[in-house]
Every structure is written in C-alpha cells, then in structure tokens.
Amino acid sequence: DYLVIGAGSGGIASARRAASYGARVAVVEKARLGGTCVNVGCVPKKVMWNAASIAETLHDMKHYGFSGYESDAISFDWGFIKEARDMYIARLNGIYERNMGNSGVSSIIGTASLANDAKGVIVTPEEGGDPVTYTAKNILIATGGYPWFPEGEGIREHAISSDGFFELEELPGHSVVVGAGYIAVELAGVLQALGSETNLVIRKEKALREFDEIVADALDDEMQRQGITIVRNTNGVKSITLDEDESKTVHLNNGEVIEGVDSVIMAAGRKPLVGPLNLDGAGIEQRKGGYIAVNDFSETNVKGVYALGDVCGNTELTPMAIAAGRRLADRLFGGPDYAGVKVSYDNVPTVVFSHPPIGTIGMTEKEAIEKYGEDKVKVYRSKFANLYYGPWQVDPDDKPKTAMKLICAGEEELVVGLHVIGMGADEMLQGFGIAIKMGATKADFDSCIALHPTAAEEFVTMFPWGLSKQVTGAKVSPLNGADAPEPKL
Fold first, then answer.
1. Residue pLDDT, tens place only, 175-184
2. What pTM value is reported for the model?
3. Residue 191 to residue 197: CA distance in whole angstroms
4. How many angstroms separate the CA atoms of 317 and 189, rounded?
5. 3-state helix vs strand vs coil in the chain, percent to 5
6. Please, how many CA atoms are within 13 Å of residue 24, restricted to the half-sphere of its CB?
7. CA dist 446 to 232, 417, 456, 465, 470, Å?
8. Residue 35 burial (CB < 10 Å; 0-12/13-18/19+)?
9. Residues 59, 355, 419, 452: which is the catalytic one?
10. C-alpha to C-alpha distance for 129 and 106, rounded to whole angstroms
11. Is 174 an active-site residue?
12. Which DSSP string do the residues of 57-81 spell out, in sequence order?
C-alpha cells in the first residue's frame, strides 16, 4: 500500500502512522536508520552543544566562588565524548529498527530509484545482487539532503562537511568553519568553547542574515566576545592547499589567507538528495535548486507519488518532516475523518543551538513591515544581562546579553513574530510558539503573570505593560481577570 524511500525521521514517522491504520508498508534505506537528524545532525550536534555548554560553565565557575579551572585538575577528552556519543546514536538506530518492526513496517536495504513513468521502485541491494522492483499504490520520497561543497582547488580534498565533523577523532587545534547559516554558527560555537582556535568565514557582512536583526547582531557580538574570529565579506573560499607539516592554508576570494589550519569544515549549504531517484524518467517535476515540487498536501505532479521533508526544501526541520509525514499517512489511510488534512508551514518555531542559543517564530521585523506597512507594525524590544551574570564582578558591558523582540501587527496588536537570543532561549520558545499559533495578542501576553526571576518573563512584561488594546486572540478570553476556561464534559 505504501512504499517509503528514505528512513529518516519524516519517512519513518509516515510509515509507522500508515501501518497503524492497517496498511502494508515498507521503507527503503541504504544507510543508518534515522537519517541526518539522528546520525549527523540534531542529536549528535546537541550532545556536542551540551559538552560545550559544560565547558562554558567551568570557565564561569570562578564568578561563583569555585576554583581550580586554571589548574590541571580539569581536562577535556574529545575521544571520550565521541565514543559515548556514537554509542548513544547506535542505540537510537536500534530503537528506530525495533519501532519499525513493532509497527509492522518492513525494511528494505538498498538504493532506490523510481521506475520510468513511476510504475514502481527499483531497489539495488547494498551487498550486491540483482535489482528488485517493488510496486505500491502510494510512494513517498523522503530522502532528505546532503552537504554541498563549493567548487575550488583542493576544497573537496582538504575540507570536511558538517557530516565529517562527527567523524573527527580529536579536537582540532585550529579550525575554520565556512558558512553563514545555523549549522556553521553552531559548529563554530562548539569548537571555540571546547578549546579550538576558530575562524568563521562568511561571504558577506554577518551570519544568519535571514534571521531578525536583533538576534543576528547579538550573536555576532557574542561570537566575537567568545574569541571566534569572524572573517567577513570574503565571497567564499577560493582554494585550500596542504602544507608540508600537514596543516592547511585557506585562500579566500577576497585575497585573505588563513594559515596553519588543522580542520576546514564546509557548512556553506545543503542540497536535496535526488541523484539516484531517476526523477526525470519518472516524470517528477523539480523546482529551483533541484528540490521536488509539491503542493500543500505533499503531492508531486505524478499521481500516487508524494514527497516531504528536506528533499522538498519547505522548512527544513526534522519536526516539520515528522508532522508532514504523519498527516500524509492520516489522509491516505485514516479514513474520512482525515480527508483534506495537511500541515501548516506558517509560524514554525525554530531553535539555533549557537552559543548562546536562539529561538525564533514568525516574521522578522523587516518581513512584517513589508507585508503590513510600517504604520501597522509595533515592535517591543528588550536587552539585558541574565541574572546568572549578576554576581560577576566585571563591567556590565562585558556581561553576555539576552536580546528579545516581540513584533505585533494591526489594531489588536496580533503577535506575528517573536525572537530571542540568550541563556535558555531554546527551552522557552515552545510554549510561546503555542500561543502564537493560537493567535495571541500583546494583551494576551500581558495577561499572563510573569515567572520570576526568569528570562522568559520579559516577554510577558514588555514595556509598556498592560496598555495595549484589550483584544484577545483566544477562544476564551484571559483578559481583565476573566474566569479560567472549563472543559466540555
């Protein structure tokens, strides 16, 4: 009934949901189960971010009366955390395999391609042997993406991708990270915090240019404070040469040169993994960048063939692919109750595990003004040092800052964007995301009593507090001391 190409988070979620309705389901995969997120993305990245955060706490401990950081009593073993991390990932691979089996999903190991005119899926076994053709009423393409390398002499030979970062056996003494997106700033932050001298090479003036300026500017300041050297306006890497001592020299397109580099990590972008799929032969349309073209229901132009996740380029986040995959299975196999269901790609919360972390949902200030007009947009901002830094006996300007922005539009001051960078931003965003998805206004935010002392309380006490038009976006108003909602029994 359902043949899924790709055992990443989105593909497996869709397959298991379909099987729960009694559908006959199989998944084709040529690599480890779980895809990018589990193996070389979100999960191992968060492990390394945690390690880097512990390093930062140890560095800060003197401000709370602890001593010993400068002695030999504290050391970091890259090999230890790599082994522990890899064992954890292997355990997750096993959990994915058992979950698929328990759900009644068959696993097919090999490389998949669509037959001409999409009449089936041809699987070439990884261990060799003759290709096998499978037919299915419904085919889902969920193959994800892969790291992209720019052209240039020695770049492929002497650099590694973000995938390769997780294969490093030791901490590089001097690292160069190339890229201006979230992967690049995450890896640069981890490497610098763990003790690698780190350069971040960006094509233009600053990283995270697509994010709201308040978080992009604050991260830029903080990366410099942490000691990361940001090499700006380079127009990218021209070439990489290997020196006699096995170190690398990175030549940039603006003429600058970085010498004595141990590891060059290319994080300049990703592309959809479509190469083996025979999309042309199957008649599947693609859009700019090679992404598979789909509508709001994950349907391609070929009946019975669907696609979702990073291979489509629509909000390339693991939870987005999982939600899209489950909703697709609901619609195909869940009966009339799920006819016409789909996911929304609007107001998707996003976290960047930089140092410090970033949380963002909705429009940037620039986007809101472009859509609604400057006179219809009201922006609330706050910038402060987290209470964690309160006891530090340093100049207030030297304390790391939390920056927040609430973007509202219309007479009712509907919250259309929320952006935060600072300690705890990653964990505070989920709840605010629910409020914004439900249509919260500034008055709704103000109606929620603050949790004190926390950083998150700043979002519900933004100056001026309580003076916005008393209009709620809620089904049951929380404004002006209203009674709490009651369930229907």
1. 999 999 999 9
2. 0.95
3. 8
4. 20
5. 35, 25, 40
6. 5
7. 40, 16, 13, 6, 10
8. buried
9. 452
10. 19
11. no
12. HHHHGGGGT---TTSTT----HHHH
Pairing state between β 160-161 and 174-178: unpaired
Return the SS3 of 362: strand
Residue pointed to by tokens 């140092």: 355
Q: Which of 464, 459, 451, 465 is nearest to 402 (CA)?
A: 459
The label of the residue with tokens 């976290």 reads 351
| Angle at the Cα of 61 from the Cα atoms of 55 and 66, rounded to 5 degrees | 130
Q: What is the pLDDT of residue 487?
A: 60
Sign of CA dihedral 379, 384, 388, 390: negative
Peptide bond into 487 cis (omega under 30): no
- E strands, 232-357, are 237-242, 248-252, 257-261, 263-266, 270-272, 305-307, 350-352
- Count other C-beta atoms under 10 Å from residue 285's C-beta: 12
- The answer to whether 404 and 420 are in contact (CB under 8 A) is yes
Q: Which pLDDT tens digit goes with each residue over 227-278? A: 999 999 999 999 999 999 999 999 999 999 999 999 999 999 999 999 999 9
* Residue 282 and residue 295 in contact, taking contact as beta carbons nearer than 8 Å: no
Matching residue, tokens 């509202």: 408
Number of residues that make up the chain: 489
pLDDT value, residue 489: 66
Look-up of token digits 């038009």? 469
Distance (Å) of CA 466 to CA 295, 410, 460: 42, 17, 9
The b-or-e profile of 64-102 (16+ CB within 10 A means b, else e) is eeeeeeeeeeeeeebeebbeebeeebeebbeebbeebee
Q: Hey, what are 65's tokens?
A: 């009366």
Radius of gyration of the chain (CA): 25
Beta bridge partners of 240: 250
